[in-house]
Write a structure and sequence with these properties.
Pfam families: DUF2520, Rossmann-like. Helix content is about 50%, strand content about 10%. It is built from 13 helices and eight strands.
């Protein structure tokens, strides 16, 4: 069966939804679908943490084995880690638990609908619906979905219409991603979000060292707890830099690398190496990429290329 044969139409008003499994992503999407009027009847959960998460975020849902969740679903959400998705799909196909015509959507960023091939052969409607958002396991996860973009891939136009309708219902913005571009799409998102966290954590660590011992100036002691002085110092700067980068692109780049200030960059590398050689290596790598973006002079490029 293809999605054009799906008898319920592209956007059923109320779907019976099952979720595999009760992780951060699955429970956030489940809660968002409930708010949109769908019925999340069941969720699979194995670990103590996932059981607690399911009971907190989806209190009306039953905790059921995977095959029972799959058998009763009109919309089945596979919100499992990328490394487990293929085996879950293969297991569901082997048991025949998923009925033909079921909407089966996974939330993997790196995969399109090809990974659902064993279930496609059994007549499901395949969808890849990936929220371009980071998840912490807290209440803000569901709220953030209303402002997030979702990378969607489907097998045909009816499939895209279904995926788009589901995303729009929960307040998100659907963005089509070609099947053969899913890995590149995922790499770009991971590079931007994951490496931003590492960059900020490194900057905070260096600032904490720089601000030590200034309590005699009326400044609070700097400790290693989140939300301290170092974070407060960085927050407005980082917010402005992110806003500028998204609105102005490479022209938003400022600072010693953009100016081609070789002496300042060399001094930075020296003091950062004294704090943490790995932190300095990260600064060097990012400065080199920044210098390439800015078209900096050769002297600075050569400095940054040294090991």
């Amino acid at each position: 069966m293809t999605s054009s044969e799906f008898s319920g139409g592209p956007a059923p008003a109320r779907l019976t939804v099952g979720i595999v499994s009760a992780g951060r992503v699955g429970t956030a999407i489940g809660a968002a679908l409930e708010r949109a009027g769908h019925i999340v009847f069941g969720v699979s959960a194995v670990s103590d943490a996932s059981i607690r998460r399911a009971r907190t975020r989806l209190p009306e849902s039953e905790i059921l084995p995977v095959d029972q969740v799959a058998a009763r679903s009109e919309l089945l959400i596979l919100a499992v880690p990328d490394s487990e998705l293929a085996s879950i799909v293969a297991g569901l196909a082997a048991t025949g638990a998923v009925k033909p015509g079921t909407l089966v959507a996974h939330t993997s960023g790196a995969n399109g609908i090809g990974i659902l091939a064993p279930l496609i052969e059994r007549g499901v409607v395949p969808l890849a619906i990936h929220p371009a958002m980071t998840f912490t396991g807290h209440d803000e996860d569901t709220a953030r979905l209303a402002n997030a973009c979702f990378g969607i891939t489907a097998g045909d136009e009816i499939g895209y219409a279904i995926a788009q309708a589901l995303v729009i219902e929960i307040g998100g913005e659907p963005v089509r991603v070609r099947e053969d571009h899913r890995t590149l799409y995922h790499a770009a998102l991971a590079h931007g979000s994951n490496h931003l966290v590492t960059l900020v954590v490194d900057a905070v660590a260096a600032l904490r060292v720089a601000l030590e011992g200034d309590e005699l100036m009326g400044q609070q002691l700097v400790d290693d707890q989140p939300g301290g002085l170092a974070e407060r110092l960085l927050a407005p700067l980082l917010s402005a830099a992110l806003d500028n980068a998204l609105r102005r692109g490479p022209s938003a780049l400022t600072g010693p690398v953009a100016r081609g200030d070789v002496d300042a960059v060399a001094a930075h590398l020296k003091v950062l190496d004294e704090v943490d050689p790995q932190l300095a290596a990260g600064y060097r790598a990012m400065s080199l990429r920044s210098a390439q973006r800015a078209g900096s002079k050769r002297e600075l490029i050569e400095l940054l290329e040294r090991r």
